[in-house]
Amino acid sequence: HWVELGAFLHSIVERFEMVVKDKNIDFHRHIAKQPTYVKIDTDKMTQVLDNILSNAIKYSPSGGNVTITLLHQGNKARISIADEGLGIPAESQDKIFERFYRVDKARARNVGGTGLGLAIASEYVHAHEGDIWVHSEYNEGTTIYITLPYSTFKGGTM
Ligand code: ATP
Ligand code: MG
């Protein structure tokens, strides 16, 4: 159903701020003030954002910043979630959206996971006529981008 994406993102980030207090991560939000209505399955999109935010936390050192941005880019709403963590080597960047793929078994051993989160995220985002991709510099950080069709009012054409 129709959801205002800015408010939706704020509520998800607020939930994360409550639960990760022990790992000293600072969240920063740059959320468009103009209305951004999207037609989404809220359970599925919550699962998508939960995984991306938990990845940002899991693969970041204590003291890292995580920045969540929502802006309008042409006829798409663009969400980005940027961290200052381990980063992903160039040769792995295409593969992280594949089922069960995890970068480097040695480092993956320290943090739990099955390697399914981003495969599911990719499937759900594409089912919403959106797109998802990664930009990352090894040892610098990672940004995940998601675009979705949007309207400036509830029920509008996208
Ligand atoms: P799951 O999400 O199923 O619990 P997971 O987090 O390992 O397990 P994905 O979310 O699909 O799996 O991510 C796949 C892999 O991509 C991760 O194992 C990790 O190696 C890499 N990765 C994902 N996000 C980041 C990030 N923000 N920084 C560094 N590496 C990342
Ligand atoms: Mg994950």
Automatic annotation (TrEMBL):
The gene is walK. This is histidine kinase. The chain holds residues 455 to 612 of 612 of the full protein. Signal peptide: none annotated. Residues 1-152 form the Histidine kinase domain. It is found in: Cell membrane.
